[in-house]
Specification:
This protein is α+β, with helices and mostly antiparallel strands. It is built from 7 helices and 10 strands.
């Protein structure tokens, strides 16, 4: 009799829960197929937009994970499992993690925006957060720059995405500005001619846009010339240092001197 009762109980359980379990399995299988198709569609859309591979991989994993969590909750609910407490605990955990990683999440959001909208790319010469350098790597949380002195600068993406960014590589060339101080005893055209000879013959200085030399400021003992050569972004530092060296050498050969500092000493 005990065996018969157990058999009847088991049979009743199968009748009661069998359809639910079967339906849950069907929903789980179909849900996984739908999720895989959605992820493939998102991947195709990101590929058409030429989204950065690092960002694409993260977004695909995030979308797949969220959809599978929703599917798991739906299947558990179909089996009669109380999911309200589970969702509440999951929400509380998410809130706690978000508060603990507030700064990191800001940097992540900034990195996602940079990778998505691309204000600059690897290899660009940029000026941001008080640093000037060539972009070596763009990660989700930080961006790496190599400065003209060959130093690695790591900038958090949160402040970087919210601050001013000057991309010197965006238009295909960059102007390399520097100043030269000349004594009042030297004619402007003599100094300009000596400097322009250097600019016209330097291999890194572009012919178009044409370089120029202009008077920026007049002083009591001399005047300041603003030298404006253009170069390719990748040649910026070579032009900046190399042209200045050659200009100084050319001015010395032409006996073009800098202003002599003067000091007034009062007695008494």
């Amino acid at each position: 009799m005990d065996i018969q009762k157990i058999s009847e109980t088991l049979m009743q359980k199968v009748i009661d829960y069998g359809p639910k379990v079967l339906m849950a399995i069907v929903v789980l299988i179909i849900g996984n197929v739908i999720i895989n198709n959605l992820v493939k569609a998102i991947n195709k859309m990101l590929s058409k937009r030429d989204t950065d591979p690092t960002l694409s991989k993260f977004l695909l994993n995030l979308a797949s994970g969220l959809l599978k969590v929703l599917l798991f909750i739906s299947v558990a609910s179909m089996l009669g499992v109380a999911t309200t407490s589970f969702v509440a605990v999951l929400g509380a955990m998410s809130l706690a993690v978000g508060m603990a990683l507030q700064g990191s999440l800001g940097n992540f959001a900034g990195g996602a925006l940079i990778l998505l909208f691309r204000p600059f790319k690897v290899g660009d010469l940029v000026e941001a957060q008080g640093n000037t350098g060539t972009v070596k790597e763009i990660q989700l949380f930080t961006t790496h720059l190599i400065t003209g002195t060959n130093r690695l600068v790591i900038i958090p993406n949160g402040p970087l995405s919210n601050g001013n960014i000057i991309n010197h590589s965006a238009v295909g060339n960059v102007r390399v500005d520097f100043e030269v101080n000349v004594a009042n005893t030297i004619q402007v055209e003599d100094a300009r001619t000596a400097i322009m000879n250097v600019l016209n013959n330097h291999p890194l200085v572009l012919k178009n846009p044409a370089p120029s030399v202009n008077v920026k400021q007049l002083g009591d003992a001399g005047y300041t010339l603003l030298v404006l050569p253009y170069s390719k972004p990748e040649d910026y530092w070579g032009t900046f240092f190399g042209v200045q060296e050659e200009v100084r050498s050319a001015l010395n050969k032409a006996n073009i001197t800098a202003p002599t500092p003067t000091r007034i000493v009062l007695n008494g």
